[in-house]
Protein 1
Amino acid sequence: MFAHETILHRLRQGCQTMAYPDGPPPALPDRHGGALRVDATQCDEGCNACVPGCPTQAITRPVGETVALDLGRCIFCAACVEVCPARAITQMRDHRLAVRRREDLVLGKSGAEELRLAAALDEKLRRLFGRSLRLRQVSAGGCNACEADVNVLGTIGWDLGRFGIQFVASPRHADGLLITGPVSRNMELALRKTYEAVPLPKLVIAVGACAIAGGPFINHPQVLNGATSVLAVDLFIPGCPPHPLTILDGLLRLLGRLNERPLHS
């Protein structure tokens, strides 16, 4: 009787997994402003109201230059958006944030107003990883926020496994590392050894402000300011923490599995 009721209950529930990426992406929560855009032409000459309020020194404006915003350092607190009198920095409510090159996360510099989103791996690597990607997740001193949102991707609503992407327990079974946390000095050796245990060819993905640049712990003597201090990184996914949709978008973008669609209103 119990099994019969369980089956009926499952049938009434229907499919709980979101249609994305075949359908529109789910809406970001109200408190999540998504990607930021910088329009340096709107900055008043001599104004640097946004600079002192940034807790991670993600915003700079040297004398005589335009404002620059490093989304790799940014924790998306939106303090800069609130204090900017010219509205030169705005929230886009766009979940897409992943890039392949660290320098592509710096907005305002060299005229870049929005992110140059991540390109897919080359054809050879897509053939290897496009249908089956195994990742070993390494928390290198993280606070568990990024780790929690990575774990969300394994739940029934997201079902990361339907894309052929899985997390494995051993680096010897992995195709690459997904790193969270600022890379504390106590975790440096463990991270290096884990990377060495992954067979070639291998990928490295940095998730969150800490793994990219140290996050709120930047320049603390006990952290190394992110994964790039130890390893070459193939994909950067900013956020503090990144929304699960941002992480999924970055992974699928890397594997060439996305057909771009307009964002829903």
Protein 2
Amino acid sequence: MDFETVIGLEIHVELSTRSKMFCGCSTEFESAPNQNTCPVCLGLPGTLPVLNREAIILAVKAGLALNCSINRKSKMARKNYFYPDLPKAYQITQNELPICSGGYVEFDCEGRHCKARINRVHIEEDAGKLIHLEDQPCSLVDYNRAGIPLIEIVTEPDIRSPLEAVSFLRTLKAILEYCEISDCRMEQGSLRCDANISVRPKGQKGFNTKVELKNMNSFRELQKALETEEKRQRELYLAGEEYRIIQETRRWDAAKGRTIPMRSKEEAREYRYFPEPDLLPVTIQEDVIKRIKETIPELPAQKLSRFVGEYKLNQSEAEVLVSDKALSEFFESTVKEGAHPKTAANWVLGDLLRILNEKKISAKNIPVKPSSLCQLIGLIEKGVISNTAGKEVFRELFESGKSPEEIIEDKGLSQISSEDVLIRLVRQVIEENPESVASFRKGKTQAAGYLVGQVMKASRGKANPKMVKELVDKELAGL
């Protein structure tokens, strides 16, 4: 039997505000436990929430960037459930009247153009964080995160594979980063994803029982968790045991490579939603929406198209650059400094990304200036240093903060372009490698390439490679 996978995502995004949703406490991530708390976010009796205006603006901005309709009036609601990291025993969120509805995201997956509809975007507050101590009979609670402003983005069940889910989430993350709605640091929990997944026979219209996978915080783990749950459900259907698939919440155990039941999935009625009595409805004027719309920058899809058209990059090069706003800005700044787009792209996608990965540095924190990379590219093109020496200089730029010329001077990396010096090196290498000369005479032209390499090695990479090749060819022709 051929099956089709059906996936819908619920993405929680921490908004880039300086203070919490309903109080003035800081949203700083690396504070000491329970430092950023007050009677309001701790839910103490007699306190009243005050809605954060900036959170509303960012939520509207997200809705506009995701092609949603902005609801002129929306309401806050109480979602009631008890959990140790929820100090009030309810969460202030939105239910029947969210701030944004409708919308869609277009994205590419394995060469296919895909589209997933957005059901809604609503605002809410985050819960605290439980810290489970190893070999201890207790857990600790950090309430710093309690009250952090969130938007929850809920998709329709339009996604048809784990890889599509990852492609969608990558595209969504890029849009949110471009608009500066969130820093989207998945490792810090500012972008978290729940996934609802079910399978059904191909051609079936209705949906089968779905399972929720909770709190995926990396693209890799999201894909692995969905693939594992997809396989589990298909095997149960093939074995005639589909009754074992129940509506529940499961967690992904990365160490064991399997999904594990957490609890039965709650229905909306179990949360006993009711209007938040301490907050008035949120009313947004048309002129406010217009002003927010004017702040939306060039989005990833538009930039991708421009990079391909304006800079003549191929699709895959442009996609990698555009996937990270900071990386795309570094590339474009390097081009504006005077570097050729293709050459700048090669450096950014090659050496720059390699060093960033090695040093675990975010593209937002590149210590090298675009002007320095442009300068380095120019020195290589003028023959002042070889491309090999250029790579050494580029790596040193990450450490020293010096200019390319200073590094070249300090390390003595200037390229040897003196014909007198090079001809001596070429003749020395030819004399020391009679076997390669003999091979060349027998018609094995690759022997010349070997001799060029030996000359470069003898010069410690400083020789002008173009001149070396010409001189080697000339000397071999005269033998």
